[in-house]
Write a structure and sequence with these properties.
- The chain is of the alpha/beta class.
- The chain has a single domain, classed as TIM Barrel.
- The protein is 36% helix and 12% strand.
- Strands 6-5-4-3-2-1-8-7 form an eight-stranded parallel beta sheet.
- Helix 4 (140-155) packs parallel to helix 6 and helix 8 (292-312) packs parallel to helix 9 (331-343).
Amino acid sequence: MRRREFVRAAGGAAALGAALPACAFPPDRETPPEASFTLWTWVHGDRDRDAAGWRERFARLREAGFHAVLVGGGDIDLVSGAARAEGLEYHRWFWTMNRNGDAWVQENHPEWFTVSRNLESSLDHPPYVGYYKWVCPSRGPVREYLRGRIAELAADPAVDGVHLDYVRHCDVILPRALWETYDLVQDVEHPEFDFCYCDVCREQFRARDGRDPLEIPDPPADEAWRRFRWDSVTGAVRELAEAAHEHGKPITAAVFPTPSIARTLVRQDWDRWPLDRFFPMLYQSFYLEDIPWIGAGVREGIAALEAAASTAGTRDAPPLNAGLYLPALDPAALAEAVATAREAGAAGVSTFEMDGLTDEHLAALRDATT
């Protein structure tokens, strides 16, 4: 299934180690000029289009001022060639911890998959929907495998950058707009959605803290156990970033809206990650919020990234592009969302997803960015 497909049931809302240094950006990382504001979009690359069809779609983007596409699935050479012919960068969109489509891993390494507090594997008992099958970032072989996949993509001359998605744990709490869809009230962390309690996570935490997380009276409230899971994801991201940078390619990620929301909902401590650009999914409709909320999210994300860069002693914080969800934004609202993100300091926006961009949307983008 495609990214966040399960959330379409919500009436058009899309879906959904050791402690590390705060950040470690490569010294030669380029930062766009302060005045630049870049337009990106996610793209489902498995659409049935030939080279001419892809060029036609990408020409529309170029004419509207787009800079790059984040493409998942499809033939890399075909889609990259069409994007580059139209002056767009091609970044490969990669599902990271969610390995639903990875038959090799599922068949050969079922032990890699995360385990809930109910001691059920996400491979055999995926939470929420059937494609929520997650591998555990604490496991060395998982990191080695994912690092190899990232290195392979980064080494491909047709790829301008690697874009991570689902680089987190399963949602322990869904965005508020989705609770009714699944007949849930998630004002607490329910055990069937709380990951990961596999043998490796428990052994690593016990070695660090002296306790088995299953024996903690209230695991969701335990700060050390929360930190362990944030760090496990961060440690994996650090290795993936190294793999991309070794091949001279930038690495980016789609992340949850703000660092505070991400840590709470999906164990994602993303402001500490050594990436080159961040795409927080500021999908206001998921959180029952309005467009000004997008600006507040941008400001929180930028402040967190600047604080992490300062702590690490790096020269600049990486840029942040606000992710915008088109089904919740008509052309006028899209223009307002772009203006809001820009005024809040975003380096650009990214839309989900390309095929939802009508001619009216593109006209609104042109007007909002010129």
